[in-house]
Amino acid sequence: MSERSPDEEPPLTFFVDTCLGTKDVPNALRAAGVTVACLIDHFRHDEEDAVWLPSVGQRGWVVLTKDKWIRRRSNEIEALKAAGVAAFILSARGLSGQQMGAAFVAALPGMQRALRVYARGSGHYFVARVTASGDVDMLEGAVRRASIRRD
User: Are strands 126-130 and 136-141 parallel, antiparallel or unpaired?
Assistant: First the structure.
């Protein structure tokens, strides 16, 4: 077994919020070679975001959700900041589970680029939007707003 150097980033795990479903989005991401953790496998399905965000942040997981309120409720914003979580919010409405999965798969290069460019952890957080076509746009966080387009 090879060991990581201290400067090497741990492998990414994308944490899928229950609002994205439990099958289509996780399965699409896994098929794309991504490590996925689902909320329902670690917490109650109706657990408050402010409860699970600190645990997700401690593990260095990246949040995928379509809950637009996660960045508008003060207790959740504070939890995002304190946990140093990177969160990607699907902005499109009315998509099927397969379409949501396809949007996140299309967004993978942009999300991975954002995760390399923008600080997270240790009090640094960010929230970005994912569109139905897979574009990724920075919304807020410890860095200035920027647009990151998929390749």
Answer: antiparallel
